[in-house]
Amino acid sequence: GNSVTQMEGPVTLSEEAFLTINCTYTATGYPSLFWYVQYPGEGLQLLLKATKADDKGSNKGFEATYRKETTSFHLEKGSVQVSDSAVYFCALSDIGGSTLGRLYFGRGTQLTVWP
Amino acid sequence: KAGVTQTPRYLIKTRGQQVTLSCSPISGHRSVSWYQQTPGQGLQFLFEYFSETQRNKGNFPGRFSGRQFSNSRSEMNVSTLELGDSALYLCASSPDRITYEQYFGPGTRLTVT
Predict the structure, then answer these.
(1) Is A86 exposed, middle or buried (0-12, 13-18, 19+ CB in 10 A)?
(2) Tens of pLDDT along B51-81?
(3) A32–B104: do the CB atoms touch at under 8 Å?
(4) B111 and B9 Cβ atoms separated by less than 8 Å
């Protein structure tokens, strides 16, 4: 079946530190991969995506590369800011058969950035 | 374009009651999915609607139901509420069933007492 495993944290960093949040997946077909971010009291916002192997998604300084050989999609940012404090979710979408129309999520990683 | 909207944003109900939540997708989006978010279980898929038909369903009891209207707006209903139904209910829309990403609304926070 389809599943996503991500480091649950919490992750606490100082401003301008380097961020990595690990995400690995299991999929039966050819998934697309996503990172979503959730700020307190809000819904999920799409941060970046990659639809095929070796694609790199990027947005707002965040990057993630779709690695099929290691079934991974790790999120990175070179210099975090206090405003990046949020919960980050790794997710996959698999277009095979009965799994259309749904996303599979990891458990989320709470990131706190201190000034 | 306006984003996904959900009403109400907050709701308090008593055990045994029923509740209806509403979702308006992004204009032009035809697929609507619902998710339940709790601290213990994380994000769990409830169901997906496309062209007024339920196309996919998660592992939830029959107390959870939904529908979609011809304008793509969707409602979900929970009958005979239990304390464990307290959660953030998120609606997400997508243009179709081929586009992979989904766009989420702010959610409805349901508290069952």
Answers:
(1) buried
(2) 999 988 999 999 999 999 999 999 999 999 9
(3) no
(4) no
For the segment A64-100, what is each residue's pLDDT rounded down to a tens digit? 999 999 999 999 999 999 999 999 999 998 776 566 6
The tokens for A13 are 């960093």
Look up tokens 């409830």; give the residue: B46
How confident is the prediction for chain B on average, in pLDDT?
Answer: 94
Does residue A63 register a pLDDT over 90? yes
Mutating which of B48, B56, B96, B101 best tests the A interface, going by the most A Cβ atoms within 10 A?
B101
C-alpha of A99 from chain center = 20
Contacts of A46 in chain B (CB under 8 A): 101-103
What is the rounded distance in angstroms from the CA atom of residue B22 to the CA atom of residue B51? 17
Contact B56 A42 (CB under 8 A): no
